[in-house]
Amino acid sequence: MYDEPFAGLDPISLGTAARLIRTLNDALGLTSVVVSHDLEETFHVADHVVILGAGGIAAQGTPEQVQANPDALVQQFIHARPNGPVPFHYPAPSLEQDFGGRA
């Protein structure tokens, strides 16, 4: 099990780590669970992807199946869209209210 194995890595190290995970799985016949928010790299190394959301499984399947999933939550997540079922802009005071000056 890998928990965020690509976090904080430069592109060269990230690619090397991803290839190592894939190579180990293939050479040893292993199954690995990779928990990651780096979707691009995860889609490259995964045979099966599960996206969690809304208290359960939002999508699962091959990387291609998940990317083609029409669900709005899934599309918002994989395309990093700020607007969709998951609100990005949380209620907050305006700049004027927050800083007491001109906005």
Concise overview:
This protein has 5 helices and 4 strands, in the order βαβαββααα. The longest helix is centred in the N-terminal third of the chain and has 18 residues. A two-stranded parallel ribbon has the order 1-2. A two-stranded antiparallel ribbon has the order 3-4.
The unreliable regions are: none
Domains counted in the coordinates: how many?
2
**What is the helix fraction of residues, given as a range?**
40-55%
Write out the strand line-up for the largest beta sheet, numbering strands in chain order: 1-2
Secondary structural class: alpha+beta
Anisotropy-based shape: extended
**Proportion of residues in β-strands:** 5-15%
Write the layout of secondary structure elements.
Elements lengths: L1 E2 L7 H18 L5 E2 L3 H7 L3 E5 L2 E6 L1 H6 L3 H7 L16 H5 L4
Parallel strand pairs: 1-2
Antiparallel strand pairs: 3-4
Helix pairs in contact: 1-2
3D architecture notes:
The protein is of the alpha+beta class and 103 residues long. Helices cover 42% and strands 15% of the residues. The strands form two sheets. It has a two-stranded parallel ribbon. A two-stranded antiparallel sheet has the order 3-4. α1 packs parallel to α2. It is extended, with a radius of gyration of 18 Å.
